[in-house]
Specification:
The complex is a heterodimer of chains A (135) and B (102). Chain A has helices at 20-33, 65-68, 83-88, 119-128; strands spanning 6-11, 37-42, 78-82, 101-102, 109-110, 114-117, 131-134. With 135 residues, chain A is α/β, with parallel strands linked by helices. Chain A has a single domain, classed as Hypothetical Protein Ychn, Chain: A (3-Layer(aba) Sandwich). A five-stranded parallel β-sheet of chain A has the order 6-3-2-1-7. In chain A, strands 4-5 form a two-stranded antiparallel sheet. Chain B has 102 residues and is α/β, with parallel strands linked by helices. Chain B has one domain (4-101): Hypothetical Protein Ychn, Chain: A, CATH 3.40.1260.10. Chain B is built from four helices and five strands; from the N terminus they run βαβαβαβαβ. Classes of the chains: A alpha/beta (135), B alpha/beta (102). The interface between A and B is medium-sized, with 26 and 25 residues.
């Protein structure tokens, strides 16, 4: 029997300009399908991945913004956002999408797993992870 | 006639905008495209760079790139012009050459 590990996906790139954000999302979905414990952390330009109201019709690229909102259903429990990265970009939590989470076995529900955190908590999250995937 | 400078990198990730602004001649035009459009948004730590640039340059941002990233028009720094792809072509056509800062 394989042990369950804590996977943390560290996202530091903006969406669309490079492939990093999209690739990270693909790997998150794969990891979640294997029943691992999956958390995400958005830092630096990575916070742009979660902005509301993305409309890619004018640039001819797939809008993968909506996929983040389904991550709660794939078992992702935490989507942490670095407060300093948000603030230095003129953004607040109100500018970000909300992602709901529900445990279908216990009916436990969380309205929004997108959580803005301070650097000291982020250090703990990074330290507690068994594996960190960097994008 | 003068040059059109394009910047396609986020000002928080790369120094492409800084280097562009350091070398672009007064009177030349600067067009922010792709991840470069984040530089056109108000309230960021890069806003002062664009406000300073507006004194010497015409500054534009690609509206489709802003919309793709969820950055609405009301977030764009006053004085920055918004263009679409046809506007991009007009800028290319009306300048001597295009200098890309990657």
């Amino acid at each position: 029997m394989s042990e369950i590990k804590n996977f943390l996906y560290l996202n530091r790139r903006a969406p669309y300009g490079t492939i990093y954000a999209w690739e990270s999302l693909e790997v998150v979905l794969i990891g979640a399908a294997f029943d691992q414990k999956v958390d995400l952390f958005f830092v630096d330009d990575g916070v742009y991945q979660l902005t509301k109201g993305q409309d890619t019709a004018g640039i001819g690229m797939k809008n993968f913004s909506a996929t983040y909102r389904t991550l709660g259903d794939y078992g992702v429990r935490h989507m942490y956002v670095d407060r300093q990265s948000l603030e230095s970009r003129g953004l607040t939590q109100n500018d970000l999408i909300q992602v709901a989470w529900e445990d279908f076995e216990t009916d436990e529900q969380v309205d929004n797993i997108v959580e803005v955190i301070e650097a000291d908590q982020a250090s703990e999250v990074l330290g507690a992870a068994d594996v960190v995937f960097s994008f | 006639m003068s040059d059109l400078h394009t910047v396609n990198k986020s000002p928080f990730d790369k120094n492409s905008l800084d280097t562009c602004l350091r070398f672009a001649q007064a009177g030349s035009s600067i067009l922010l495209i792709e991840d470069g459009v984040y530089g056109a948004v108000k309230g960021t730590v890069a806003e002062a760079k664009i406000r300073d640039a507006l004194a010497k340059h015409k500054v534009y941002a690609m509206a489709p790139d802003l919309r793709a990233r969820g950055m609405t028009e009301d977030r764009v720094i006053e004085g920055v012009g918004l263009v679409d792809y046809a506007g991009f072509v007009d800028l290319v056509e009306s300048n001597d050459k295009v200098q890309a800062w990657l």
